[in-house]
Each structure stands twice: as structure tokens, then as C-alpha cells.
Amino acid sequence: MDEVRREEFRKLLGELSGLRMPFGKYGPAAVPPQGMPVHDLPVEYLLWFKERGFPKGRLGELMALVCEIKEVGMDALFDPLRQANGGRVSFRSKRVREIEFPD
Predict the structure, then answer these.
(1) How many CB atoms lie within 10 A of CB 66?
(2) Total count of domains within the chain
(3) Rounded distance, CA 102 to CA 13, Å?
(4) Which domain holds residue 68?
(5) 3 state SS of 20
(6) Listed residue (42, 45, 39) closest to 12, CA to CA
(7) pTM of the predicted model as reported, rounded to 2 decimal places
(8) Is residue 14 in a domain?
(9) Main-chain phi, psi angles of 54, to 5 degrees
(10) Which residues are 61's β-sheet partners?
């Protein structure tokens, strides 16, 4: 019985690892080229959806699951997914620092 649950959980994490936000503030237009991974969405954004309703279908189900995991403080559960994909995706653009020296 426990082996079945583990296998289901592995499949779920595999599904989450490739899922990107397809629209909105963290979609492909804002986080090129594919959008932010659902497991990297900020908890505040997920809570906003929780209040107003998650999207219909599998995307909404997985977003609700990620929200629950993050709400209870288990965000570290997604660290292996992040490591496999090169780290956490950042929404903020990198700041270019320019230093000018007087002549």
C-alpha cells in the first residue's frame, strides 16, 4: 500500500516538474520563454487564486496542491525539482550596476 502511494507521489512530482504557468503575471510574456514553474510561484499569488478560485482542470488541481504544500511550510519539498532544472526561477530582472569613475 505504501509503495503505491510513493509511486503516485513520484508521478505527481514528475508532472509538477514540467508544468509552467501558461498565463497571467507569471506566464510566458512575463517570464520568457515558457513561464514560471508552478512550484516556484509565490505563495501570495497562489493564495490569491485560493480566495478567488483556481483555474479549472489539471492546472488548477496542481496549483491548489502546491498552495497547500507551501502554506504548511514545506516549500523545500520542491528543491530537488529546482536543482534538476538549474535552480529557482527568479521573477525579478537582474540589476545592471554601472560605476563611473571621475577622470
Answers:
(1) 22
(2) 1
(3) 54
(4) 2-84
(5) strand
(6) 39
(7) 0.76
(8) yes
(9) -75, 160
(10) none
Which SS3 state, helix, strand or coil, does residue 2 take?
helix
Per-residue pLDDT tens for 62-92?
A: 999 999 999 999 988 888 888 877 766 665 6
Look at residues 15, 23, 21, 24 and name the one whose alpha carbon lies nearest to residue 41.
21
Distance CA 63, CA 56 (A): 10
Q: Region of 18 please: left (phi>0), alpha (psi -120 to 50) or beta.
A: alpha
Report how far residue 30's alpha carbon sits from residue 100's, in angstroms, rounded to the nearest whole number.
31
Amino acid at 33: P
Residue 21 backbone dihedrals phi, psi, to 5 degrees: -70, 120
- 96: cell is 545592471
- What are 31's three cell numbers? 517570464
Q: What would the pLDDT profile of 10-62 be if each residue is shown by its tens digit? A: 888 888 888 999 999 898 988 888 889 999 999 999 999 999 999 999 999 99
Per the domain annotation, does 33 fall within a domain?
yes
User: How distant is the alpha carbon of residue 10 from its chain centre?
Assistant: 17
20 touches 37 (CB < 8 A): yes
Q: Is residue 89 part of a domain?
A: no
